[in-house]
Amino acid sequence: MCVDLFRSSGWGAFPRCSGMSRCVVSEQEKQGVFSVSHLMNTYARLPVTFVKGEGVWLWDDQGNRYLDALSGIAVCGVGHCHPELTKALCEQAAALVHTSNLYHIQNQERLADRLTSLSGLDKAFFCNSGAESNEAAIKLARLYGHNQGIALPTIIVMERSFHGRTMATLTATGNRKTQAGFEPLLTGFVRVPYDDLEAVNKVAVDNREVVAILLETYQGEGGVNFPQASYLQGLRKICDQNNWLLMLDEVQCGLGRTGKWFAFQHSSIVPDVMTLAKGLGSGLPIGACLAGGKVAEVFKPGNHASTFGGNPLACRAALATLDVIEQEGLMANAVAIGSFMREEFKQKLHAWQNVLKIRGQGMMIGIELPLPCGELVSEALKRHLLINVTSEKVVRLLPALNMQKTEAAQIVNEVSDLVSRFLEKSRGKQ
Q1: CATH code, 99-310
Q2: Is the pTM above the cut of 0.90?
Q3: Model pLDDT for residues 147-197, shown as the tens digit of each residue
Q4: d(CA 196, CA 160)
Q5: CATH classification of 46-82+329-429, choosing from 3.40.47.10, 3.90.1150.10, 3.30.70.260, 2.10.10.90?
Q6: What Å distances lie between residue 425 and 60, 381, 418, 430, CA to CA?
Protein backbone atom coordinates (compact mmCIF):
# COMPACT_ATOMS: atom_id res chain seq x y z
CA MET A 1 0.00 0.00 0.00
CA CYS A 2 1.13 3.55 -0.72
CA VAL A 3 1.17 5.71 2.39
CA ASP A 4 2.12 9.33 2.83
CA LEU A 5 1.62 9.65 -0.92
CA PHE A 6 2.90 13.14 -1.28
CA ARG A 7 5.34 15.12 0.76
CA SER A 8 5.11 18.01 -1.70
CA SER A 9 3.06 18.98 -4.72
CA GLY A 10 6.05 19.94 -6.82
CA TRP A 11 7.87 18.05 -9.57
CA GLY A 12 9.64 14.93 -8.59
CA ALA A 13 7.61 14.17 -5.46
CA PHE A 14 8.09 10.49 -4.68
CA PRO A 15 5.89 8.13 -2.67
CA ARG A 16 7.45 6.79 0.51
CA CYS A 17 7.64 3.14 1.44
CA SER A 18 6.68 2.26 4.98
CA GLY A 19 5.15 -0.44 7.12
CA MET A 20 5.39 -3.94 5.75
CA SER A 21 6.38 -2.79 2.24
CA ARG A 22 9.99 -1.96 2.93
CA CYS A 23 12.40 -1.60 0.03
CA VAL A 24 15.51 -3.73 0.56
CA VAL A 25 18.47 -2.30 -1.36
CA SER A 26 21.98 -3.76 -1.34
CA GLU A 27 25.10 -1.65 -0.94
CA GLN A 28 25.98 -2.47 -4.55
CA GLU A 29 22.63 -1.16 -5.73
CA LYS A 30 23.01 2.00 -3.66
CA GLN A 31 26.33 2.68 -5.34
CA GLY A 32 25.13 1.63 -8.79
CA VAL A 33 27.96 -0.91 -9.00
CA PHE A 34 27.50 -4.48 -10.22
CA SER A 35 30.66 -6.53 -10.81
CA VAL A 36 28.78 -8.95 -13.08
CA SER A 37 25.55 -8.11 -14.89
CA HIS A 38 23.04 -10.91 -15.24
CA LEU A 39 21.11 -9.02 -17.93
CA MET A 40 21.15 -10.39 -21.47
CA ASN A 41 23.40 -8.31 -23.67
CA THR A 42 20.62 -6.78 -25.80
CA TYR A 43 21.59 -3.13 -25.35
CA ALA A 44 24.89 -1.29 -25.75
CA ARG A 45 24.20 0.73 -22.62
CA LEU A 46 25.78 4.11 -22.02
CA PRO A 47 27.83 4.50 -18.82
CA VAL A 48 25.24 6.30 -16.71
CA THR A 49 22.53 5.28 -14.23
CA PHE A 50 19.61 7.63 -13.67
CA VAL A 51 17.83 7.61 -10.33
CA LYS A 52 15.58 10.68 -10.38
CA GLY A 53 13.65 12.78 -12.87
CA GLU A 54 11.92 16.15 -12.75
CA GLY A 55 10.38 17.81 -15.82
CA VAL A 56 12.96 17.70 -18.62
CA TRP A 57 15.85 16.87 -16.27
CA LEU A 58 17.36 13.62 -15.02
CA TRP A 59 19.86 13.00 -12.21
CA ASP A 60 22.33 10.14 -12.13
CA ASP A 61 23.47 8.15 -9.10
CA GLN A 62 26.38 10.55 -8.60
CA GLY A 63 24.11 13.59 -8.32
CA ASN A 64 24.85 14.98 -11.80
CA ARG A 65 21.99 16.64 -13.71
CA TYR A 66 21.26 15.95 -17.40
CA LEU A 67 19.03 17.75 -19.89
CA ASP A 68 16.82 15.15 -21.58
CA ALA A 69 16.26 15.85 -25.28
CA LEU A 70 15.03 12.31 -25.93
CA SER A 71 12.29 11.81 -23.28
CA GLY A 72 12.83 8.06 -23.14
CA ILE A 73 12.54 7.89 -26.98
CA ALA A 74 9.25 9.80 -27.16
CA VAL A 75 7.81 8.12 -24.05
CA CYS A 76 7.87 10.82 -21.35
CA GLY A 77 5.91 13.39 -23.34
CA VAL A 78 4.77 15.32 -20.25
CA GLY A 79 8.21 15.21 -18.66
CA HIS A 80 9.52 13.12 -15.80
CA CYS A 81 7.44 12.67 -12.65
CA HIS A 82 4.73 15.13 -13.56
CA PRO A 83 2.84 15.74 -10.30
CA GLU A 84 -0.59 15.00 -11.80
CA LEU A 85 0.65 11.72 -13.24
CA THR A 86 2.41 10.76 -10.00
CA LYS A 87 -0.73 11.51 -8.03
CA ALA A 88 -2.92 9.46 -10.36
CA LEU A 89 -0.58 6.47 -10.25
CA CYS A 90 -0.34 6.44 -6.47
CA GLU A 91 -4.10 6.71 -6.06
CA GLN A 92 -4.70 3.88 -8.53
CA ALA A 93 -1.98 1.65 -7.06
CA ALA A 94 -3.58 2.03 -3.65
CA ALA A 95 -6.99 1.06 -5.08
CA LEU A 96 -6.49 -1.63 -7.76
CA VAL A 97 -3.63 -2.62 -10.08
CA HIS A 98 -4.89 -5.72 -11.89
CA THR A 99 -7.92 -7.95 -12.22
CA SER A 100 -8.26 -9.58 -15.64
CA ASN A 101 -9.79 -8.83 -19.00
CA LEU A 102 -12.34 -11.50 -18.12
CA TYR A 103 -14.08 -8.67 -16.28
CA HIS A 104 -15.04 -5.08 -17.11
CA ILE A 105 -12.34 -2.50 -16.31
CA GLN A 106 -13.63 1.04 -15.82
CA ASN A 107 -10.39 2.84 -16.67
CA GLN A 108 -10.08 0.80 -19.85
CA GLU A 109 -13.56 1.79 -20.97
CA ARG A 110 -12.84 5.44 -20.18
CA LEU A 111 -9.59 5.37 -22.13
CA ALA A 112 -11.23 3.68 -25.12
CA ASP A 113 -13.94 6.36 -25.10
CA ARG A 114 -11.32 9.10 -24.97
CA LEU A 115 -9.08 7.76 -27.74
CA THR A 116 -11.88 6.94 -30.15
CA SER A 117 -13.37 10.40 -29.62
CA LEU A 118 -10.01 12.08 -30.31
CA SER A 119 -9.18 9.95 -33.35
CA GLY A 120 -12.53 9.45 -35.08
CA LEU A 121 -12.14 5.66 -34.86
CA ASP A 122 -14.62 3.31 -33.20
CA LYS A 123 -12.98 0.56 -31.15
CA ALA A 124 -9.80 0.02 -29.13
CA PHE A 125 -7.73 -2.98 -28.09
CA PHE A 126 -5.15 -2.45 -25.35
CA CYS A 127 -1.84 -4.20 -24.93
CA ASN A 128 1.58 -3.38 -23.48
CA SER A 129 3.85 -1.96 -26.20
CA GLY A 130 4.16 -0.59 -29.69
CA ALA A 131 5.23 -3.94 -31.09
CA GLU A 132 2.18 -5.58 -29.54
CA SER A 133 -0.15 -2.94 -30.94
CA ASN A 134 1.33 -3.42 -34.42
CA GLU A 135 1.09 -7.20 -34.01
CA ALA A 136 -2.62 -6.72 -33.28
CA ALA A 137 -3.00 -4.57 -36.40
CA ILE A 138 -1.31 -7.22 -38.57
CA LYS A 139 -3.56 -9.96 -37.17
CA LEU A 140 -6.59 -7.73 -37.69
CA ALA A 141 -5.66 -7.17 -41.35
CA ARG A 142 -5.12 -10.88 -41.96
CA LEU A 143 -8.42 -11.82 -40.37
CA TYR A 144 -10.13 -9.10 -42.39
CA GLY A 145 -8.60 -10.57 -45.55
CA HIS A 146 -9.61 -14.13 -44.75
CA ASN A 147 -13.16 -12.92 -44.10
CA GLN A 148 -13.08 -11.56 -47.66
CA GLY A 149 -12.07 -14.95 -49.02
CA ILE A 150 -8.42 -14.03 -49.65
CA ALA A 151 -6.16 -17.05 -49.16
CA LEU A 152 -2.87 -15.19 -48.53
CA PRO A 153 -3.72 -11.76 -47.11
CA THR A 154 -0.79 -9.48 -47.93
CA ILE A 155 0.22 -6.18 -46.33
CA ILE A 156 2.20 -3.45 -48.10
CA VAL A 157 4.97 -2.09 -45.84
CA MET A 158 7.66 0.55 -46.32
CA GLU A 159 11.41 0.71 -46.70
CA ARG A 160 13.25 2.23 -43.69
CA SER A 161 10.24 1.50 -41.46
CA PHE A 162 10.29 0.23 -37.89
CA HIS A 163 7.32 -1.54 -36.29
CA GLY A 164 8.85 -3.66 -33.51
CA ARG A 165 10.89 -6.80 -32.82
CA THR A 166 8.29 -9.58 -32.60
CA MET A 167 8.42 -11.91 -35.58
CA ALA A 168 5.54 -10.27 -37.45
CA THR A 169 6.61 -6.70 -36.72
CA LEU A 170 10.24 -7.58 -37.44
CA THR A 171 9.18 -8.84 -40.86
CA ALA A 172 7.19 -5.67 -41.47
CA THR A 173 10.18 -3.52 -40.47
CA GLY A 174 12.23 -2.19 -43.38
CA ASN A 175 15.69 -2.66 -41.89
CA ARG A 176 17.70 -5.69 -43.00
CA LYS A 177 20.20 -5.30 -40.15
CA THR A 178 17.38 -5.65 -37.61
CA GLN A 179 16.08 -8.78 -39.33
CA ALA A 180 19.43 -10.54 -39.84
CA GLY A 181 19.77 -13.81 -37.96
CA PHE A 182 16.07 -14.30 -37.31
CA GLU A 183 15.12 -15.99 -40.55
CA PRO A 184 12.85 -17.49 -41.70
CA LEU A 185 10.74 -14.36 -41.69
CA LEU A 186 6.99 -14.42 -42.18
CA THR A 187 5.29 -14.36 -45.54
CA GLY A 188 2.49 -11.99 -46.50
CA PHE A 189 4.37 -8.68 -46.82
CA VAL A 190 5.32 -6.60 -49.86
CA ARG A 191 7.79 -3.74 -49.42
CA VAL A 192 7.82 -0.42 -51.30
CA PRO A 193 9.67 2.89 -50.86
CA TYR A 194 8.21 5.34 -48.36
CA ASP A 195 6.54 8.43 -49.84
CA ASP A 196 6.13 6.80 -53.28
CA LEU A 197 2.51 6.53 -54.43
CA GLU A 198 3.46 5.13 -57.83
CA ALA A 199 5.13 2.12 -56.21
CA VAL A 200 1.93 1.41 -54.25
CA ASN A 201 -0.19 1.72 -57.40
CA LYS A 202 2.06 -0.78 -59.16
CA VAL A 203 1.53 -3.32 -56.38
CA ALA A 204 -2.22 -2.76 -56.66
CA VAL A 205 -2.05 -3.85 -60.30
CA ASP A 206 0.30 -6.80 -59.78
CA ASN A 207 -0.91 -8.34 -56.49
CA ARG A 208 -4.57 -9.21 -55.92
CA GLU A 209 -3.90 -10.60 -52.42
CA VAL A 210 -3.21 -7.21 -50.81
CA VAL A 211 -5.56 -6.31 -47.95
CA ALA A 212 -3.81 -3.41 -46.20
CA ILE A 213 -1.04 -0.83 -46.12
CA LEU A 214 0.95 -0.47 -42.88
CA LEU A 215 3.25 2.51 -42.39
CA GLU A 216 4.50 4.99 -39.86
CA THR A 217 2.75 8.29 -40.50
CA TYR A 218 6.15 9.91 -39.90
CA GLN A 219 9.17 7.62 -39.75
CA GLY A 220 11.23 7.71 -36.56
CA GLU A 221 13.88 4.97 -36.46
CA GLY A 222 14.29 5.23 -40.23
CA GLY A 223 15.74 8.73 -39.97
CA VAL A 224 12.95 11.11 -38.88
CA ASN A 225 11.36 11.19 -42.33
CA PHE A 226 8.26 13.15 -43.33
CA PRO A 227 6.28 12.49 -46.54
CA GLN A 228 4.89 14.93 -49.07
CA ALA A 229 1.72 16.68 -47.95
CA SER A 230 -0.41 14.70 -50.40
CA TYR A 231 1.06 11.27 -49.61
CA LEU A 232 -1.39 10.12 -46.96
CA GLN A 233 -4.30 11.48 -48.97
CA GLY A 234 -3.07 9.47 -51.93
CA LEU A 235 -2.79 6.30 -49.85
CA ARG A 236 -6.29 6.85 -48.48
CA LYS A 237 -7.62 7.07 -52.05
CA ILE A 238 -5.80 3.92 -53.15
CA CYS A 239 -7.10 1.98 -50.16
CA ASP A 240 -10.67 3.12 -50.80
CA GLN A 241 -10.44 2.12 -54.47
CA ASN A 242 -9.14 -1.36 -53.64
CA ASN A 243 -11.06 -2.07 -50.41
CA TRP A 244 -7.77 -2.13 -48.48
CA LEU A 245 -7.16 -1.04 -44.91
CA LEU A 246 -5.00 2.00 -44.25
CA MET A 247 -3.11 1.20 -41.03
CA LEU A 248 -0.97 3.93 -39.44
CA ASP A 249 1.73 3.30 -36.86
CA GLU A 250 1.77 6.36 -34.61
CA VAL A 251 3.72 4.74 -31.78
CA GLN A 252 6.41 7.42 -31.93
CA CYS A 253 4.76 10.35 -33.71
CA GLY A 254 1.34 10.25 -32.00
CA LEU A 255 -0.03 11.72 -28.77
CA GLY A 256 0.64 15.40 -29.44
CA ARG A 257 4.27 15.09 -30.51
CA THR A 258 3.72 16.76 -33.89
CA GLY A 259 1.34 19.44 -32.61
CA LYS A 260 -1.88 17.49 -33.10
CA TRP A 261 -3.20 14.53 -31.20
CA PHE A 262 -2.19 12.30 -34.09
CA ALA A 263 0.13 12.97 -37.02
CA PHE A 264 -2.44 11.84 -39.60
CA GLN A 265 -4.59 14.82 -38.60
CA HIS A 266 -2.17 17.09 -40.45
CA SER A 267 -3.38 15.44 -43.69
CA SER A 268 -7.15 15.62 -43.04
CA ILE A 269 -7.68 11.88 -43.49
CA VAL A 270 -8.77 9.13 -41.13
CA PRO A 271 -7.12 5.68 -41.18
CA ASP A 272 -8.92 2.39 -40.72
CA VAL A 273 -6.45 1.27 -38.05
CA MET A 274 -4.00 3.20 -35.87
CA THR A 275 -1.46 1.95 -33.35
CA LEU A 276 -0.20 3.83 -30.29
CA ALA A 277 2.20 3.24 -27.37
CA LYS A 278 5.27 5.16 -26.09
CA GLY A 279 3.86 8.54 -25.00
CA LEU A 280 0.44 7.10 -24.19
CA GLY A 281 1.43 5.94 -20.71
CA SER A 282 4.27 8.37 -19.92
CA GLY A 283 6.48 5.43 -18.96
CA LEU A 284 3.85 2.90 -17.91
CA PRO A 285 3.73 -0.01 -20.40
CA ILE A 286 0.65 0.40 -22.59
CA GLY A 287 -0.17 0.07 -26.27
CA ALA A 288 -3.37 0.54 -28.22
CA CYS A 289 -4.72 -0.65 -31.55
CA LEU A 290 -7.67 1.46 -32.70
CA ALA A 291 -9.96 0.50 -35.56
CA GLY A 292 -12.91 2.07 -37.31
CA GLY A 293 -15.58 1.44 -39.91
CA LYS A 294 -15.52 -1.89 -41.72
CA VAL A 295 -12.77 -3.35 -39.56
CA ALA A 296 -13.95 -2.19 -36.11
CA GLU A 297 -15.90 -5.38 -35.41
CA VAL A 298 -13.59 -7.93 -37.05
CA PHE A 299 -12.05 -9.22 -33.81
CA LYS A 300 -14.33 -11.60 -31.87
CA PRO A 301 -13.84 -13.23 -28.45
CA GLY A 302 -10.90 -15.61 -28.68
CA ASN A 303 -9.27 -13.93 -31.72
CA HIS A 304 -6.78 -11.87 -29.73
CA ALA A 305 -5.90 -11.14 -26.11
CA SER A 306 -3.39 -9.67 -23.66
CA THR A 307 -3.12 -10.65 -20.00
CA PHE A 308 -1.87 -7.27 -18.83
CA GLY A 309 -3.33 -5.17 -21.63
CA GLY A 310 -5.54 -2.31 -20.47
CA ASN A 311 -4.97 -2.97 -16.77
CA PRO A 312 -6.33 -0.31 -14.36
CA LEU A 313 -2.91 1.17 -13.54
CA ALA A 314 -1.68 1.58 -17.12
CA CYS A 315 -5.01 3.01 -18.27
CA ARG A 316 -5.04 5.49 -15.39
CA ALA A 317 -1.57 6.63 -16.46
CA ALA A 318 -2.82 7.11 -20.03
CA LEU A 319 -5.88 9.05 -18.90
CA ALA A 320 -3.74 11.33 -16.73
CA THR A 321 -1.33 11.84 -19.65
CA LEU A 322 -4.14 12.89 -21.99
CA ASP A 323 -5.48 15.26 -19.32
CA VAL A 324 -2.12 16.95 -18.86
CA ILE A 325 -1.54 17.35 -22.61
CA GLU A 326 -4.97 18.93 -23.03
CA GLN A 327 -5.13 21.06 -19.88
CA GLU A 328 -1.62 22.48 -20.18
CA GLY A 329 -1.83 23.23 -23.90
CA LEU A 330 1.15 21.02 -24.70
CA MET A 331 0.34 20.51 -28.37
CA ALA A 332 0.52 24.26 -28.98
CA ASN A 333 3.74 24.35 -26.98
CA ALA A 334 5.17 21.53 -29.09
CA VAL A 335 4.48 23.55 -32.24
CA ALA A 336 5.97 26.76 -30.84
CA ILE A 337 9.08 25.26 -29.26
CA GLY A 338 9.67 22.85 -32.13
CA SER A 339 9.52 25.69 -34.68
CA PHE A 340 11.86 27.77 -32.52
CA MET A 341 14.40 24.93 -32.36
CA ARG A 342 14.40 24.24 -36.09
CA GLU A 343 14.86 27.93 -36.95
CA GLU A 344 17.67 28.26 -34.41
CA PHE A 345 19.37 25.16 -35.82
CA LYS A 346 19.19 26.60 -39.34
CA GLN A 347 20.86 29.80 -38.16
CA LYS A 348 23.56 28.19 -36.04
CA LEU A 349 24.37 25.52 -38.62
CA HIS A 350 24.13 27.85 -41.61
CA ALA A 351 27.79 27.29 -42.50
CA TRP A 352 27.03 23.62 -43.07
CA GLN A 353 23.76 24.04 -44.98
CA ASN A 354 25.19 22.34 -48.07
CA VAL A 355 25.70 19.04 -46.19
CA LEU A 356 22.94 19.11 -43.57
CA LYS A 357 19.22 18.39 -43.69
CA ILE A 358 17.12 19.74 -40.83
CA ARG A 359 13.56 18.45 -40.70
CA GLY A 360 10.80 18.08 -38.20
CA GLN A 361 7.24 18.60 -37.06
CA GLY A 362 6.53 19.80 -33.54
CA MET A 363 8.78 18.04 -31.03
CA MET A 364 10.07 15.50 -33.54
CA ILE A 365 13.30 16.81 -35.05
CA GLY A 366 16.00 15.19 -37.18
CA ILE A 367 19.36 16.60 -38.32
CA GLU A 368 20.84 14.47 -41.07
CA LEU A 369 24.62 14.57 -41.47
CA PRO A 370 26.57 13.41 -44.52
CA LEU A 371 28.32 10.55 -42.68
CA PRO A 372 27.78 8.24 -39.68
CA CYS A 373 27.75 10.27 -36.46
CA GLY A 374 26.96 7.80 -33.68
CA GLU A 375 29.83 9.16 -31.58
CA LEU A 376 27.81 12.34 -30.98
CA VAL A 377 25.64 10.45 -28.47
CA SER A 378 28.55 9.80 -26.10
CA GLU A 379 29.97 13.28 -26.71
CA ALA A 380 26.61 14.80 -25.76
CA LEU A 381 26.50 12.64 -22.65
CA LYS A 382 29.82 14.13 -21.54
CA ARG A 383 28.04 17.49 -21.67
CA HIS A 384 25.15 16.10 -19.61
CA LEU A 385 22.82 16.12 -22.60
CA LEU A 386 20.75 13.15 -23.82
CA ILE A 387 20.31 12.79 -27.58
CA ASN A 388 20.07 9.90 -30.01
CA VAL A 389 21.42 9.00 -33.45
CA THR A 390 19.24 6.87 -35.69
CA SER A 391 19.74 5.49 -39.18
CA GLU A 392 23.48 6.02 -38.52
CA LYS A 393 23.49 9.62 -39.78
CA VAL A 394 20.51 11.38 -38.18
CA VAL A 395 20.61 13.19 -34.83
CA ARG A 396 17.15 12.55 -33.41
CA LEU A 397 15.60 14.90 -30.86
CA LEU A 398 12.33 14.03 -29.12
CA PRO A 399 11.98 16.46 -26.21
CA ALA A 400 9.09 16.49 -23.77
CA LEU A 401 6.10 18.44 -25.05
CA ASN A 402 6.31 20.85 -22.08
CA MET A 403 9.90 21.89 -22.65
CA GLN A 404 10.41 25.64 -22.31
CA LYS A 405 12.35 27.98 -24.60
CA THR A 406 15.36 28.37 -22.28
CA GLU A 407 15.85 24.61 -22.15
CA ALA A 408 15.25 24.29 -25.90
CA ALA A 409 17.85 26.99 -26.56
CA GLN A 410 20.36 25.07 -24.44
CA ILE A 411 19.77 21.93 -26.53
CA VAL A 412 20.18 23.89 -29.77
CA ASN A 413 23.43 25.50 -28.60
CA GLU A 414 24.97 22.23 -27.42
CA VAL A 415 23.88 20.12 -30.41
CA SER A 416 24.93 22.81 -32.91
CA ASP A 417 28.36 22.96 -31.33
CA LEU A 418 28.70 19.17 -31.31
CA VAL A 419 27.65 18.90 -34.96
CA SER A 420 29.94 21.74 -36.07
CA ARG A 421 32.95 20.27 -34.25
CA PHE A 422 32.19 16.82 -35.68
CA LEU A 423 31.92 18.09 -39.26
CA GLU A 424 35.04 20.24 -38.89
CA LYS A 425 37.00 17.26 -37.58
CA SER A 426 35.66 15.04 -40.38
CA ARG A 427 36.62 17.61 -43.01
CA GLY A 428 40.12 17.75 -41.57
CA LYS A 429 40.49 13.98 -42.03
CA GLN A 430 39.60 14.10 -45.73
Answers
A1: 3.40.640.10
A2: yes
A3: 999 999 999 999 999 999 999 999 999 999 999 999 999 999 999 999 999
A4: 13
A5: 3.90.1150.10
A6: 30, 19, 11, 9
